[in-house]
UniProtKB/TrEMBL annotation, chain A:
Residues 127-349 form the SUF system FeS cluster assembly SufBD core domain. This is Iron-sulfur abc superfamily atp binding cassette transporter, membrane protein. It comes from the Bacteria. SUPFAM superfamilies: Stabilizer of iron transporter SufD. Pfam families: SUFBD_core (PF01458). GO terms for biological process: iron-sulfur cluster assembly. InterPro entries: Fe-S_cluster_assembly_SufBD (IPR055346), SUF_FeS_clus_asmbl_SufBD_core (IPR000825), SUF_FeS_clus_asmbl_SufBD_sf (IPR037284).
From TrEMBL, chain B:
This is Iron-sulfur cluster assembly ATPase protein. Residues 4-244 form the ABC transporter domain. GO terms for molecular function: ATP binding; ATP hydrolysis activity. It comes from Paucilactobacillus wasatchensis. NCBIfam families: sufC (TIGR01978). Keywords: ATP-binding, Nucleotide-binding. Belongs to the ABC transporter superfamily. Ycf16 family. Gene3D superfamilies: P-loop containing nucleotide triphosphate hydrolases. The gene is sufC. Pfam families: ABC_tran. PROSITE patterns: ABC_TRANSPORTER_1, ABC_TRANSPORTER_2.
Length: 381, 244
């Protein structure tokens, strides 16, 4: 049965707008105003990585309604089942499906980072899905960049990854858009035993963003790291939840979120470290921080630890605030102009997460900060 | 040239009056020492000259080369030639020591940047004079530097930025005798007709190595006594109370 047909069954009627602790949003903002029947998009990537993947038996293939394969349908249905009450997930897959699948076979190490670019040109609402499949003992680095270039007012992005035993994934996801947009972003990366998963996300969306991303450590000995870097400018609003679920013993996670708020932007971050009963010897640490630079910004961070096991290690650090005025004063006292001094402090603040991205993406982040630095400030110096 | 003239200066912090009618005159090329018990307002005076927004001038004037600097912003004052070596320098991990000093130099030269090789050359020379490990070039600004290393790094900045008026707030505190000699060497290398300096210190020993032209004693927010280098030696023997 096709995904669309499954979604018409009773089970998936009356979904809800998802609720997240500490995240406030207007549900209608993220509703699609029109059903989309064709998605106008294309992808490209660096040839050397594509060649290496193909030579080693891997695949990068386009998914659409005509060509969708049964294992892809199955993966998507599994994802839908875990989000079956989520209005936006149902909305996403009720559209014509479009996206990509990357498959890396077992015992395969891809040396070249895959720089995957997805350009979406839709004028109406658009959806895009990425499926990732890593075989046992495989390894790859993927730098995924989604650019929404059309005039669409809404978009929806879903990432579904699964890693077999002892595989390593380093994934960065950058999202950019040209005109104001409301975007929903969902992602689940499932890791089996002894995996390493590092996912770094920088949603540079102008407009609204609602996101919920998670790494599931399903097998013992796995390690998951989630990095988030968000710069808010003008009147951007962003609610983003990042979680790592420890479902097996001796799993380890790090969540590191940084947000820089310029202008009148609003950012709510929620980070969740979830250790279930039986996941003994696990270690979950998280750090979420927002720097409020702009004149009338609003930011909250909500660190959450859900722990149902005694023998674990868990901790969190959180902060919301301006840069340190003594540091700013020190820089100024050496003659560094105020605009530059502020930027030095912003870069200082984001540097632990910034270094997770490659040079190309760092440039994009830098551009966003340069843009934000042109807006008004609240330090009265 | 750099002449500092302070007239009837009163300063408050959080509505509490700290400096009360301070008068001070530093001529071109002079080095003055400012001494006094804890909490009398020495750092307050130093920070006020630099423009720290915590300190509010309630009365009086600060003139540098005849120009009232009270209205100038902090970075403008710095570019006009004022330098404050702080009692407690802050750490900023995200910029390297070298990039920071280079940026500060470039800010002074306007559009024309100081060429990198020339900059590094000067930097390494001065680091050698100050016995600073070359590895500190690429460390984060003051990041995890020890107290003494931070002080030497302040003097390194002084030597690189070549201000015309330097205020050194307890540059000698926490230094062992070898480090003190090194720091003194750095300060003395700046001595020039065009370099004026106010050194805040608690210890006469610094003044053995950097001999001041004038010594002031501050108590309770006022300069209560002014004299030559001998004043500091007398102080060492008698203490503040007997002196006034
Ligand atoms: N930022 C501030 N906030 C509140 N009070 C302050 C501040 N700075 C200084 N003061 C107060 O002003 C007075 C003078 O302090 P200042 O630091 O100028 O003294 P000082 O002479 O430099 O002392 P020390 O020799 O201990 O460094 C003290 O009573 C101090 O508590
Ligand atoms: Mg002091």
């Amino acid at each position: 049965m096709s995904i669309k047909k499954v979604l018409k069954t009773a089970e998936f009627q009356h979904p809800h707008f998802p609720k997240y602790l500490g995240i406030h949003y207007t549900p209608e903002d993220f509703d699609f105003h029109s059903d989309q029947n064709t998605c106008d998009w294309k992808w490209h990537a660096n040839q050397n990585a594509i060649a290496e993947i193909k030579a080693k038996g891997g695949q990068i293939s386009r998914i659409d309604a005509c060509t969708i394969q049964s294992h892809q349908t199955q993966e998507i249905l599994n994802f839908i089942h875990t989000h079956k009450k989520n209005h936006y997930v149902i909305q996403h897959f009720s559209q014509q499906i479009s996206g990509l699948e990357v498959i890396i076979p077992e015992n395969t190490i891809i040396q070249k980072p895959l720089n995957l670019n997805i350009d979406v040109f839709n004028q109406l609402s658009s959806n895009y899905s990425l499926l990732l499949n890593l075989g046992t003992n495989s390894r790859i680095t993927i730098n995924q960049q989604v650019i929404i270039a059309g005039q669409a007012s809404n978009a929806s992005l879903i990432m579904i990854g699964s890693q077999n035993d002892n595989s390593q994934l380093k994934l960065t996801t950058t999202i950019l858009n040209h005109s104001n947009l409301n975007l929903v972003l969902f992602g689940n990366l499932d890791a089996a035993r002894d995996c390493q998963t590092v996912w770094s996300l920088t949603p540079g969306i102008h407009g609204g963003l609602l996101g919920d991303v998670a790494i599931n450590l399903n097998g013992q000995g796995s390690f998951g790291r989630l990095n988030v870097l968000k710069t808010g400018t003008v009147s951007d609003h962003c609610g983003l939840q990042a979680s790592v679920n420890h479902y097996a013993p001796h799993t380890k996670s790090r969540i590191n979120m940084r947000g820089v708020l310029f202008g009148k932007s609003k950012v709510n971050f929620t980070s969740i470290g979830n250790i279930v009963k039986g996941a003994s010897g696990s270690d979950a640490q998280q750090e979420s921080r927002l720097m409020t630079v702009g004149e009338t910004t609003h930011g909250t961070v909500n660190p959450v630890l859900l722990i149902d096991e005694n023998d674990v290690n868990a901790g969190h650090a959180a902060s919301v605030g301006q840069y340190d005025l003594d540091e700013l004063y020190y820089l100024l006292s050496r003659g560094i102009p105020i605009m530059q001094a502020r930027k030095i402090l912003v870069y200082d603040f984001i540097s632990p997460v910034m270094q997770e991205f490659d040079k190309r993406i760092q440039k994009i982040i830098t551009a966003a900060i340069e843009m934000g630095s042109g807006e008004s400030f609240n330090d009265n110096l | 040239m750099a002449e500092l003239v302070i007239r009837h200066l009163s300063v408050a912090v959080q509505d509490k009056m700290i400096l009360d009618d301070v008068n001070l005159n530093i001529h071109d090329g002079e080095i003055h020492a400012l001494m006094g018990p804890n909490g009398t307002g020495k750092s307050t005076l130093s920070e006020t000259i630099m423009g720290n927004p915590r300190y509010k001038i309630t009365d009086g004037k600060i003139l540098m080369d005849g120009r009232n600097i009270a209205k100038m912003k902090i970075d403008e004052r710095a570019r006009a030639g004022i330098f404050l070596a702080m009692q407690y320098p802050v750490e900023v991990a995200g910029i390297t020591n070298a990039d920071f000093i280079h940026s500060a130099m470039n800010a002074r030269t306007g559009n024309q940047n100081v060429p990198v090789l020339q900059f590094l050359d000067q930097l390494h020379q001065n680091m050698e004079i100050l016995n600073i490990d070359p590895a500190y070039t690429d460390r984060g600004l003051n990041k995890d530097f020890s107290g003494g290393e931070k002080k030497r790094n302040e003097i390194l900045q002084l030597m690189m930025l070549k201000p015309t008026l330097a205020i050194l707030d307890e540059i000698d505190s926490g230094l062992d005798i070898d480090a003190l000699k090194v720091v003194a060497k750095g300060i003395n290398s700046m001595r020039d007709r065009k370099f004026s300096c106010l050194m805040v210190t608690h210890y006469q020993r610094l003044l053995n190595y950097v001999v001041p032209d004038v010594v002031h004693i501050m108590m309770n927010g006022r300069i209560v006594k002014t004299g030559g280098p001998k004043l500091a030696m007398d102080l060492e023997n008698t203490g503040y109370e007997k002196l006034i």
